[in-house]
Design goal:
Helix content is about 30%, strand content about 20%. The protein contains four helices and five strands; from the N terminus they run H-H-H-E-H-E-E-E-E. Strands 3-4-5 form a three-stranded antiparallel sheet, covered by helices on one side. The chain has a two-stranded parallel sheet with strand order 1-2. Strand 4 and strand 5 form a beta hairpin.
């Protein structure tokens, strides 16, 4: 499948149109999970990031300073990369209104969600290690 074929397929999909509709109406999703064929993953990420970051002037060679990656398209992030991602996301945006993170190969991580009182706990199990992210 060529890049043009994937672009046409994505732009005509119901899921992509729902995401675009939400963002265009001012509802920026806090998280989006997308199952995208390997050949189209980087294209999807760049299109989504351009829409969410609303900052075309800072893009260079498909990269943006407020777009943070963990892992690679074919390999889930290590526990250290997840910790670094948590730190990076706590920083103020460099040039956009917000920061955006991409967790590549997230389907290879085990995820458990839990709520205790008003605290939302997201547990990432990676190999035999545990990383907790707390959202209060």
């Amino acid at each position: 499948m060529s890049d043009n074929d994937f672009a046409a397929l994505m732009e005509n999909s119901g899921g992509w149109n729902e995401i675009c509709s939400a963002v265009n109406s001012g509802r920026h999703p806090q998280s989006v999970a997308a199952l995208v064929p390997p050949a189209g993953q980087e294209y999807f990420v760049e299109c989504y990031a351009r829409m969410m970051l609303e900052d075309d002037r800072a893009w260079s060679d498909g990269r943006h300073p407020d777009l943070i990656y963990a892992g690679t398209p074919d390999k889930a992030p290590s526990i250290e990369e997840c910790r670094k991602l948590n730190e990076e996301m706590s920083l103020h945006p460099v040039s956009a209104k917000r920061r955006l993170s991409v967790i590549w190969a997230a389907d290879k991580l085990s995820l458990v969600e839990q709520t205790i009182g008003s605290t939302y706990i997201l547990k990432y199990f990676y190999e035999n290690n545990l990383l907790l992210s707390l959202f209060i």
